[in-house]
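Batch manifest, entry 17 of 40.
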Amino acid sequence: MGVAMCDRHAADPDKVALIHVAQDGSVHPYTYVHLRDASNRLANVLLARGLTTGDRVAVLLEQSPEAAIAHLAALRAGLVSIPLSTLFGVDALKYRLADSGAAAVVTNIANAEKLESLVAELPELKVVLSVGGATGCSAGFETELARAASAFTPVQTRADQPAMMMYTSGTTGNPKGCLHAHRFLLGHVPGVAMPHEFFPQPGDRIWTPADWAWIGGLLNVLFVSLLSGVPVVTHRPRKFDPQHALDLMTTHGVRNLFMPPAALRQLCEAKVPARLALRTIGSGGDPLAPATAAWCQEALGAPVNEFYGQTECNLVLSNCAGLSSLRVGSLGRPVPGHAVALIDEDGQEVPAGTLGTIAVRRPDPVMFVGYWNNPAATEAKFHGDWLVTGDLAIRDDEGFFYFRGRSDDLIKSSGYRIGPGEVEEAVEKHPAVAQAAVIGVPDADRGQIVKAFVVLKNGAQGGPELISDIQTFVRTRLAAHEYPREIAFLPELPRTASGKLQRSALRQL
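Output type: structure tokens
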């Protein structure tokens, strides 16, 4: 993957891979030659520090050239890269770094400070590199690369050899590491070509506000674009602003956009610049309101092609207006190369118009290898040869899928998958909390938001101040998108006779 995304385009020394727009608005182009040489240097640094084939390298960076370089270096060296969100607090980072046995972390000064208290508890961690300079626990990224050679012979890899690991939240327990193989880069090409109307086309240039720590931003935008020779605008504002987003796309000639529905809804409130020239808009993660789709077509000049996938098996359904294959409100039809169906509890396909669970038949190039060190969970994800997504849908007579909800308790908020277990564990660490249960509740802007039901310890008093304190407590330990935006206090949690939590009763409340 590291070679495919870089080397053949580096034959042209002037070919631009990334257009980095810094927080101050300054623009810095990066060529494929730069990415190749810098990732070669970093590969040399990592191997010199004792990393060997299959070791894990965590990339704890926002959208940036250094993040792209870190992933490329790991892949070129036969290592496994792990994208991690800078939104994560110390508890979330500690779990993922310890569970993966990460041998290296590439980050920046601000996030290296989060690691200071964790390094001593991570015995397998050999090196931390920090963009912007050294810290107490890290060496300077730029200094280390400057000392290393720019020549490196990439490690030869097989199609089924592990390449990346992405953590995804489930409904119970801690997040699980989804291990993917080198094959899944090429496997994503049809799934990006569909929503982006036969991508790539001459003049294409792509951007997304989505975090590269998630599969949508990293694979659907950065990786496939590098492979295709399409320049990627890299810029993630500290807070999404719809007017800023439209101005950014206009200024830098963005033609292809991946934007979650929640962000598209916000664009409706902004003024669209006359020079905006979008060719394609892809969206996924939450259902898109028909009114938002109509506004995008009218105001932005391009239809919104919704698509569907999940971390374990990404981008397998899509709309494509150019094929007259667009139904507003649908997830689309199966992308060429993927066998997707709706199945019942017995693993049998259901007919059109019948509610079923979205399932993907193996083998499939974008399907995960398995959950890291969790064969039982991997086995439970399948029903025979069907990978069972847990998402409920119906299919019409033309083959379009329509999302109808989850078959479990996973929360989907602004495109993020949030497992209640991790949030509950964080809430229960608060000194005033005895027990906590978390569900997703409907929200007009985010699809769902996290709501926590809390049983307090004796002597604790519920009220606005405690609600705010619990929210801050969780936000700083997990991530800004995971904290409970609503909290209710209960004398006890509803449970079955055997003591199992009844989330259905909480939803009724």
